[in-house]
Amino acid sequence: MTDVTIVAIDGPAGSGKSSVSKQTARRLGFGYLDTGAAYRALAWHALQHGIDTSDAAAVLDVSGDFDYAISLDPDQYWVRVGQTDVTDAIREPRVSDAVSGVARVPAVRESVNALFRALVAQSGRPGVVVEGRDITTVVAPDAPVRILLTAAPEVRAARRSAELTTQDAAAVAAALHQRDASDSAVVDFLTAAPGVEVVDSTDLDFDQTVDAVLGVIAAALSAPTADTAQTGA
Ligand SMILES: Nc1ncnc2c1ncn2[C@@H]1O[C@H](COP(=O)(O)OP(=O)(O)OP(=O)(O)O)[C@@H](O)[C@H]1O
Ligand SMILES: Nc1ccn([C@@H]2O[C@H](COP(=O)(O)O)[C@@H](O)[C@H]2O)c(=O)n1
């Protein structure tokens, strides 16, 4: 797809994709692309227009004037819609609750996937860690490194509720599992596709998880490819 080395990371909500991918990108001097932010920002945009995101036709309609921008710098992360900085707003529970409706619209997925590929190609970085739900399978199925980052459901819910102090733990867990259930009807991010390495962080702390991901990347990038094996390069 491009000369930029892509590290593709998928996984369910709260598995640590964003935080682990961002730190991995820093350690490698790579860019970091949070693909979920595009779906969240479009959900935010739809809500601003008073649209119910379960109405696919209305979502598609409002996506016509969706002016989206995101930083790929892991140290200066921001997300904008038009002139509005929505970096924090797209994490609000009302957006998380609405986002699966947006992600369910096939034309939206095609359009954001084209945008992701363009952002990676224009990143100016030697590599980009791209994280989401369908990166290993749809957005970058030929990436040299493809990882499914998992953790037990109760561990993911506990990590998420530890960062959201305004909501009770049971409500956070229920919302997270509800979002996984809706999302997994659209893309399968709970089982690893052939060739995708699983990193299970259930019993790992954050630094151990980053190290495990870096280990998979080092092994994959040093392994001979079909091309180098043939030429002896
Ligand atoms: N291995 C780990 N051990 C402990 N905490 C972790 C670990 N990995 C991530 N976390 C913490 O878990 C929380 C959720 O992680 P993060 O937001 O990166 O998940 P995510 O998969 O991107 O979620 P979502 O898909 O909902 O955006 C964060 O507070 C993060 O710091
Ligand atoms: N590749 C992707 C990434 C995300 N989604 C949808 O966006 C939502 C938010 O993603 P987060 O990673 O920020 O939690 C997610 O719940 C999916 O609905 C997607 O479909 N494909």
TrEMBL record:
Pfam families recorded: Cytidylate_kin
The keyword Repeat belongs to this UniProt entry's keyword annotation: no
Keywords: ATP-binding, Cytoplasm, Kinase, Nucleotide-binding, Transferase
E.C. designation(s): 2.7.4.25
Cellular compartment(s): Cytoplasm
UniProt binding sites for ATP: G11, P12, A13, G14, S15, G16, K17, S18, S19
Domain Cytidylate kinase residue range list: 7-217
Coiled coil (UniProt feature): none
MF terms (GO), sorted A to Z: kinase activity
Main location: cytoplasm
Catalytic activity from the UniProt record: CMP + ATP = CDP + ADP; dCMP + ATP = dCDP + ADP
Family note: Belongs to the cytidylate kinase family. Type 1 subfamily.
Cited PANTHER family: CYTIDYLATE KINASE, CYTIDYLATE KINASE/PANTOATE-BETA-ALANINE LIGASE
Protein name, entry field: Cytidylate kinase
Organism in which the protein naturally occurs: Microbacterium jejuense
